[in-house]
Amino acid sequence: MRLFLTQSGAFSFSLTWILITLFIGTGVGVAQYENYQEQVPGSNAILPMVYIEAGTFKMGSPKSEKGHFGDEGPQHNASIDGFWMGQFEITWDLYNLFVSRENDGNQVIKTASNEVQVNVDAVSGATTPYVEMSFGMGIDNYPAICMTQLAAVKFCEWLSAMTGNFYRLPTEAEWEYACRAGSETAYSFGDDSSRLSDYAWYGENSNDKYQKVGTKKPNPLGLYDMHGNVSEWTLDQYIPTAYRKRNKSVTNPLEVGEKIYPKVVRGGSWMDNPNRLRSAARRPSSKKWKRRDPQIPKSKWWHTDAPFVGFRVVRPLKTPSDQEQKKYWKYESTE
Prior knowledge:
Blueprint: E1 2-5, E2 11-14, E3 22-24, E4 35-39, E5 46-52, E6 55-59, E7 76-80, E8 83-86, H1 92-100, H2 149-163, H3 172-180, H4 196-199, E9 231-237, E10 249-251, E11 263-266, E12 282-284, E13 309-310, E14 314-316, H5 322-328
């Protein structure tokens, strides 16, 4: 039996495996195999985190898969270390705390046991957008959208400073590993796209807008909206031929690159067709996502033309050194 917390606060059960305990707290060490909730100090904002065990999976898709694109092959074995991943996409409730920075004075008091020693005052803050960036689609429990990858990265740094725990964006490999949840099919629930409406908000059922997080069925790991709702940023530079250059087996792959475009987003969105929602589907970011930004120079924080892009966070089981942490939070260069 498995126990996990849903977005509504109710407990759900699944007969797949045992979750020994649910630990709730901030700035305290979390043992292996435990899900937990992170609460942003000084707020009611809660971030449920799901533990994902280390393992190896087949990354990419075969040519025979319906909707397969050339950048998804060849398939290769990727070994991934254990990590926690946000059960839900980051919502406006959380993201606006980062944008407003009104809560910074409640930063956790740092101790030697904290994973992160960064002072929140040292974290760059996003500029206030010149328009309401939800575009009227909803704020309370709805996914945050339109942020650049830099903004998503800096949110992770801010969250880390506030809580004392290390957070970052997932790598592309971590994202697919978590999305697949042990499956080798087009979607985490199988190959039949007619079942998508049970698990995802996408072009055919979204009513032309994103929807509240956690309102569809989760994947076998208890992660919601891995297919659809909003596409999700990863850390990787988008390289269409990346898989061709890899060995048949790789460990914790990450395509590092300091160019702003293109980066990889995953999962498909409320605007997309089923092919875009497949576990292996990859999408590059684009300068066109800022086309209607009237600012000169254009904002490095907001994508005015990407109301389909959001993100979720991960916390690796193995905390990187202070120097390595900065590398994960630095993905920025000139355009």
